[in-house]
Design a protein that fits this description.
Blueprint (H helix, E strand, L loop, with lengths): L2 H22 L8 H18 L3 H6 L8 H13 L3 E14 L2 E12 L8 E12 L2 E14 L5
Antiparallel strand pairs: 1-2, 2-3, 3-4
Length: 152
C-alpha cells in the first residue's frame, strides 16, 4: 500500500470521526427534551418568585436535596423582601449526567423599596435531580455577583 493511500484512509477516518461524533454523542442543533424540561422548571421557579408563591416554589425543590431546608429558607427570605425585583437575563443548559442535570443562570436583582439594597447580577450554577420522572431543584452554587450602580 502506498503512503498516499494510507494517508488518504487516515484522513477519511479522521474526518468521518469528527462528522459522526455529534450524532454518537446525542448532540443536536435544537434543545433536547431534558433541556426543555429543565428550562420549564426554571421558568416555574422564576414565576413563583415573581408571584411570591413560596408553596409553589417548595414543590420544585427535590425532597431529598442535602440543602433543601437552606434552599427553602433562602427563597423564603427573598420572597419576604417584597421590595426586590428579579429578572432572568441569561439561562444556559450545560449538561445531563443522570440522575443530574446542570444549568447556569444570570439574574438581575433590583431594589425597589426604601431599604438600602445594592442592585446586582448573580451568576449561579443550578443542579437538578430526577424525583421519579420529574426534574427538581437539587442545589445551587453561586459563581459570582456583579454589583451595579443605581443607573444600571
Amino acid at each position: 500500500m502506498s503512503n498516499t493511500s494510507v494517508f488518504t484512509k487516515r484522513l477519511f477516518v479522521l474526518l468521518l470521526t469528527f462528522l459522526l461524533a455529534p450524532i454518537s454523542l446525542g448532540v443536536s442543533a435544537g434543545e433536547s427534551g431534558t433541556e426543555k424540561r429543565i428550562r420549564a422548571l426554571f421558568d416555574k421557579a422564576d414565576a413563583a418568585v415573581a408571584s411570591e408563591d413560596l408553596d409553589k416554589l417548595v414543590t420544585l425543590i427535590h425532597p431529598d436535596a442535602p440543602n433543601a431546608e437552606k434552599t427553602r429558607q433562602r427563597f423564603a427570605q427573598i420572597l419576604e423582601d417584597r421590595e426586590l425585583e428579579e429578572e432572568v437575563i441569561g439561562f444556559h443548559f450545560l449538561a445531563e449526567d443522570l440522575p443530574y442535570a446542570f444549568a447556569r443562570a444570570q439574574v438581575k436583582w433590583t431594589g425597589k423599596g426604601k431599604e438600602p439594597f445594592r442592585d446586582n447580577i448573580t451568576d449561579t450554577l443550578y443542579i437538578f435531580k430526577k424525583d421519579g420522572t420529574e426534574w427538581k431543584l437539587w442545589g445551587e452554587v453561586p459563581l459570582g455577583v456583579m454589583l451595579l450602580d443605581k443607573s444600571s
